[in-house]
Each structure stands twice: as structure tokens, then as C-alpha cells.
Amino acid sequence: MTNVLATVNSDACAQPVLDTPAVLAHLLDATVVALHVREHGVSAPARVANAAGVELREASGSPIKEIVAATKAPDIAALVLGTRGAHRGSQPAGHTALAVITQTAKPVVVVPPDAHPPKRLGRILVPLEGTAESSRALDGTIALAHRHRLDVLVLHVHSPSTVPAFSDHEPHATQTWDTEFLNRHVAVPHTRVRLLRRLGVPADDVVAVAHETTADLIVLAWSQDLSEGRARVVSETLAHSRVPVLLLPVSPRRS
Q1: In this model, does residue 167 exceed pLDDT 90?
Q2: Distance, CA of 103 to CA of 184 (rounded, Å)
């Protein structure tokens, strides 16, 4: 059996965190299981889990340690957790969420506290920087979206030094560039795939484009490194997104 694990606590963020995995479980043909780590012997989330009709697993101890350990179980395909509290500020998410996403090898969906997940996904936004490693990490998710007939919006943000010189003057050349980019980085047929290109800074554009296009989910490949100067796109997206963000760890290149 395949399960999507949703971490829940006793605050108001529990409901969005339980609504989101139901959408993901539909795609994965999986079952939703909730996890609550008790630090003080209280189990208020049991009421939320019962109301949602999902199994509740409980543990005691360090939330970070227990959540990461739970994701290692072979039946867990993905993890869903909340950012806890207001998500727009200097920090992209709470301490627990940030620690967990850097330590688990499984895909993680981070849910903003004011998210309103749809019952079914219709459109996902997939930023692509154009490297082989990030494209490979996103292959499975894009293929899954294709099988379920979701609209896939591929976002590529140019810097002033990388924007094609012909982009404003030669429509045919622009279309050729777009087609070649998709052929290089998206393995599935492109019938429901659309490339969006912007000029600017990726960290600033992802959330804005998600809002403009009413995307239901943002999908990001990343190296799980939140040290200073790294993963700015992930940090800014987690800090400001109003829709859930799926983080896919990039596998190291094999020698």
C-alpha cells in the first residue's frame, strides 16, 4: 500500500494540511495517513483526523526527528506539512518545516496556512532553470500530471544575459526556441504543456506567475541546501506562495 503522510498539529493549519494530501493521493493512487508528534502528551489533532476520515499515527519526542523517521517507511510516497502561522515574512517557513525539508529524501508538499486546495488539481506550475539535473528531478511529476490530463505550465525566467536576441522581433524563431527548450527538458508529449518565459529574477517571478495563471500547485526541484546564498527561489516561494509547493530533491549526479 502507498501512503501520503500529512503532519498535523493542534493549530488552525491542520485542516489545509489534511485537505492537500487528498488531492495528491488521488494522483498517486494512495491513501492519506496523518501523523501527530506529541511534545506534551496532548492529542487535539485526533478530532481533525477523525473528521477527515484518515488514520492518525502518533509519536512522542522531537517533531523533526519523528517526522523524518516516519518518511523513511517504504509505504510513504510523499510528505505534506504546514508552514505554521503567517508565511509572509523574513523566514520562508517555521523551524520544523525547514529542518524536515532538508533532511528527508521523499517529495514534500509545503502548505501555506491560508491555502484553499482544490478537490482536484487542474494546473501545475513547473519552473525550469534549464539544467539536466533539475529537469530529471521533475520528469516523474510532469509525467504523472500528463497521465492525469493536468495542464502543465513550464516557467523559464531569463536574465538579461540569456534572453534570446530575437525574442521581440522574430515570432518564428521564438517559437522554434520554445519548442527546442521543451523537447530538451520535458519528456512527455506537449499537448497540455505550455512554456511561459519571463525576463527577470526567478525568485521574484514564480509566485507572481502562479497567481496570474491560477496554478493549483508549484513544483520545484532543489538541492536541499538552505545555507546563505542558496535556494533563493525555494525560500522566496515558500515565504510568499498562497498555494502548496511541492519540493522534489535533486538526486546527485552519478559518476
Answers
A1: no
A2: 30
Residue 153 pLDDT level (bands cut at 50, 70, 90): very high
pLDDT-derived band of residue 242, with 50, 70 and 90 as boundaries? Answer: very high
State the burial class of residue 65 (Cβ atoms within 10 Å of its Cβ: 0-12, 13-18, 19+): middle
Apex 178 CA angle, 176 and 184, nearest 5: 100
Return the pLDDT at 101.
95
- Residue 186, pLDDT > 90, answer yes
Would you say 127 and 245 are in contact if contact means Cβ atoms under 8 Å apart? no
Hey, is 204 helix, strand or coil? helix
3-111, CATH topology level: Rossmann fold (3.40.50)
Indicate left, alpha or beta for 36 from its phi (over 0: left) and psi (-120 to 50: alpha). Answer: beta
Q: How far apart are CA 68 and CA 58, in angstroms?
A: 14
The CA–CA distances, whole Å, from 88 to 18, 41, 146, 180, 181 equal 21, 31, 32, 37, 33
User: Is CATH 3.40.50.620 correct for 123-249?
Assistant: yes
Rounded CA-CA distance 101/246 in Å is 10
Beta pairing class for 123-127 and 217-222? parallel
Q: Do domains 3-111 and 123-249 have the same CATH topology?
A: yes
Spans of all domains in the chain: 3-111, 123-249
